[in-house]
C-alpha cells in the first residue's frame, strides 16, 4: 500500500510537485469556492424575512433574493467553464473570487429591493466563474490516480454540502445575535481570503493556454452557443421558480418552458455542427454524453441533488413552521450535521480506493433515502430529537458527502484535461436543474396534500400556524417523494456502475 508521499509524487507532469502542507492549503483554497457558493445561497434563505422587513419587500417577492443568485449562477456555468478552459483556469478562478468578494461587501448596503436583487444576481455571475474552474484546477493538478487525488477530491466534494449546512448554522446565529448584514460581511471576508490565497497557492503554469493571441482566443469561444444555453437555462430556471409562486397555468410559465426547451434543442444542434464541421471548438462537446457512465452519472446527480436540496428545505420548514422553533433553535438542531460534515471527508477519502466505488455510491443513496424516510414516517410528536431527527440529519450529511466525493472523482478521471472545467460546470448545471425541478415538484405535492387535508384549494392556503397537522401531512408527502428521487438516482447508478471501478487503490 503506497504512502501519502508516494501518492504526492504522482502529480501531473505539467504541474509542479506539491508538498503535503502546500497540498492542504491548495485544496482548501479551491474547496472554498464550492463552500462559499452554497453558503451564500443557503445563509440568505434563513434571513429572508429579516431582509424583507428591512427593505420593505413583500413576502411574495422575497424569494427573488435567492432566485436571482441561483439564476445567474446556473445560467453562466457552461460559458464560464469553456472560457476557463481556453483562457486559463487559474486566471478565471482568481477573477471570479475577486468579483464575489467585492459584490458581497457592497450588497448589504444596497437600500432598495431592485438594486439588492441585481447585486444578488451579480454575485451568482462571479460564483459561476470560480466554481467550475476549481474542479478543473484540481483535476489538472492531481491527474494521476492515487491517495493524494482521493484526499483532494473528497475534501473538495464536501465543500458544497458543508456550505449548505454551515450556511444554515451561521445564518441562524448571526440573525439571533448580530446585524443581518454580517452574513454578507462573512462571505466577503472568506472569499477575500480565498482570492489572496489562490494568487499564491494555485500553480501559475496551471492550464496555460497554448495560444497566447488574445484575438484568436476570443474567437475560440463559442459565443453563439453561450448565448443560446445561457438564455434558455435562464428562462427554464425562471419558469420553474415562478411556477409555484404564480401558478403553473399562468400563461407565461408554460410558454417560457416550451421556448427554453426549443432553444436547448437548437443549442444541441449547433454544438453538434461545431464539433463536426465548425471553425471553433464548441462550448459543450455533445460527444461527452456518448460516454454511457458519464451521461447516467449526470442524470443520477440531478435526482440525487433534488432529494438532498428538498431534504434541507423541508426539514427547515418542519423545525420553523411546524414546530415553531426560533432561528437559533433551528441552528442548534442542524449543528450535528456540520460536525459530521467536517469529519466525513476523512472517512470517505480513506474508503476511496479501498472499497468498491459502487458500494460507496449505494451507501450514500441509502443514507439519503433513510433521512427523508424518517421525516416521512407518521411518528408521534413526543418522540425526542435524539431518537428521530438527529439520526435523519446525520444520515443526510454523510450521504451527500459520500456521493459528491465519488462523483467529482469520477468526472476528473474519465474526461481529458482540456474538458475538466466544462465538466465541473456540467456537474453544477445538473445539480441546479435537479434542485429546481425537484423543489418545484415537491412544493406542488406538499401544497396539494396540505390543501386536500384541510379541505381548501391550494391557492387559498394561508399562513401556517405551528402544530398544523395538515401542513405536516404535506411535508411528509414531500419527504416520501424525496425518497423516490434518491432511489431513482440509486437505480441509475447501480445500472451504470455495478461492474465499473475507476479509483485505483492507494
UniProtKB/TrEMBL annotation:
Q: Where are the transmembrane segments?
A: 24-51, 63-80, 92-110, 122-141, 153-174, 180-202, 223-240, 252-272, 292-319, 331-353, 360-378, 390-411, 479-498
Write down a Pfam family by its short name.
MFS_1
Q: Where in the cell is it found?
A: Membrane
Q: Where is the Major facilitator superfamily (MFS) profile domain?
A: 26-506
Q: Which PROSITE patterns match?
A: MFS
* Topology of the protein relative to the lipid bilayer: Multi-pass membrane protein
Q: Which GO terms describe its cellular component?
A: membrane
Q: Which GO terms describe its molecular function?
A: transmembrane transporter activity
Task: Provide this UniProt record's keywords sorted from A to Z.
Answer: Membrane, Transmembrane, Transmembrane helix, Transport
State the InterPro entries in the record. Answer: MFS, MFS_dom, MFS_trans_sf
Domain of life from the UniProt record: Eukaryota
**Name of protein:** Major facilitator superfamily (MFS) profile domain-containing protein
What is the source species?
Penicillium angulare
> What lineage does the source organism belong to?
Eukaryota, Fungi, Dikarya, Ascomycota, Pezizomycotina
Amino acid at each position: 500500500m503506497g504512502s501519502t508521499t508516494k501518492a504526492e509524487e504522482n502529480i501531473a507532469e505539467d504541474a509542479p510537485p506539491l508538498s503535503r502542507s502546500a497540498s492542504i492549503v491548495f485544496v482548501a483554497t479551491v474547496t472554498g469556492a464550492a463552500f462559499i457558493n452554497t453558503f451564500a445561497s443557503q445563509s440568505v434563505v434563513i434571513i429572508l424575512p429579516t431582509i424583507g422587513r428591512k427593505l420593505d419587500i413583500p413576502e411574495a417577492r422575497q424569494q427573488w433574493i435567492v432566485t436571482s443568485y441561483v439564476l445567474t449562477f446556473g445560467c453562466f456555468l457552461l460559458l464560464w467553464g469553456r472560457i476557463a478552459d481556453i483562457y486559463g483556469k487559474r486566471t478565471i478562478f482568481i477573477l471570479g473570487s475577486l468579483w464575489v468578494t467585492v459584490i458581497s461587501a457592497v450588497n448589504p448596503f444596497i437600500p432598495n429591493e431592485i438594486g439588492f436583487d441585481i447585486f444578488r444576481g451579480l454575485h451568482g455571475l462571479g460564483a459561476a466563474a470560480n466554481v467550475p474552474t476549481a474542479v478543473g484546477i484540481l483535476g489538472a493538478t492531481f491527474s494521476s490516480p492515487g491517495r493524494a487525488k482521493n484526499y483532494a477530491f473528497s475534501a473538495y466534494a464536501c465543500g458544497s454540502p458543508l456550505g449548505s449546512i454551515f450556511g444554515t448554522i451561521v445564518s441562524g446565529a448571526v440573525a439571533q445575535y448580530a446585524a443581518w448584514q454580517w452574513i454578507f460581511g462573512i462571505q466577503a471576508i472568506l472569499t477575500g481570503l480565498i482570492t489572496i490565497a489562490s494568487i499564491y497557492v494555485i500553480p501559475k503554469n496551471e492550464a496555460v493556454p497554448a495560444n497566447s493571441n488574445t484575438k484568436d482566443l476570443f474567437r475560440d469561444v463559442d459565443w453563439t452557443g453561450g448565448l443560446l444555453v445561457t438564455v434558455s437555462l435562464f428562462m427554464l430556471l425562471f419558469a420553474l421558480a415562478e411556477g409555484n409562486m404564480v401558478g403553473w397555468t399562468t400563461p407565461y410559465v408554460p410558454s417560457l418552458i416550451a421556448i427554453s426547451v426549443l432553444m436547448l434543442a437548437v443549442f444541441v444542434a449547433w454544438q453538434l455542427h461545431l464539433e463536426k464541421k465548425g471553425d471553433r471548438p464548441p462550448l459543450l462537446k455533445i460527444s461527452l454524453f456518448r460516454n454511457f457512465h458519464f451521461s447516467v452519472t449526470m442524470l443520477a446527480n440531478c435526482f440525487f441533488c433534488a432529494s438532498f436540496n428538498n431534504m434541507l428545505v423541508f426539514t427547515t420548514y418542519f423545525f420553523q413552521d411546524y414546530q415553531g422553533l426560533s432561528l437559533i433553535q433551528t441552528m442548534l438542531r442542524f449543528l450535528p450535521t456540520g460536525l459530521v460534515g467536517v469529519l466525513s471527508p476523512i472517512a470517505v477519502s480513506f474508503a476511496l480506493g479501498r472499497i468498491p466505488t459502487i458500494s460507496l455510491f449505494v451507501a450514500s443513496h441509502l443514507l439519503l433515502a433513510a433521512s427523508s424516510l424518517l421525516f416521512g414516517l407518521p411518528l408521534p410528536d413526543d418522540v425526542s430529537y435524539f431518537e428521530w431527527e438527529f439520526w435523519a440529519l446525520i444520515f443526510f450529511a454523510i450521504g451527500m458527502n459520500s456521493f459528491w466525493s465519488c462523483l467529482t472523482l469520477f468526472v476528473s478521471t474519465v474526461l481529458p484535461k482540456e474538458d475538466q472545467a466544462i465538466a465541473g460546470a456540467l456537474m453544477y448545471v445538473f445539480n441546479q436543474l435537479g434542485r429546481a425541478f425537484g423543489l418545484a415538484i415537491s412544493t406542488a405535492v406538499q401544497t396539494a396534500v396540505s390543501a386536500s387535508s384541510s379541505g381548501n384549494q391550494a391557492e387559498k392556503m394561508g399562513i401556517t400556524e405551528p402544530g398544523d397537522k395538515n401542513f405536516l401531512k404535506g411535508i411528509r408527502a414531500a419527504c416520501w417523494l424525496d425518497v423516490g428521487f434518491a432511489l431513482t438516482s440509486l437505480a441509475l447508478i447501480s445500472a451504470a456502475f455495478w461492474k465499473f471501478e475507476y479509483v485505483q487503490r492507494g
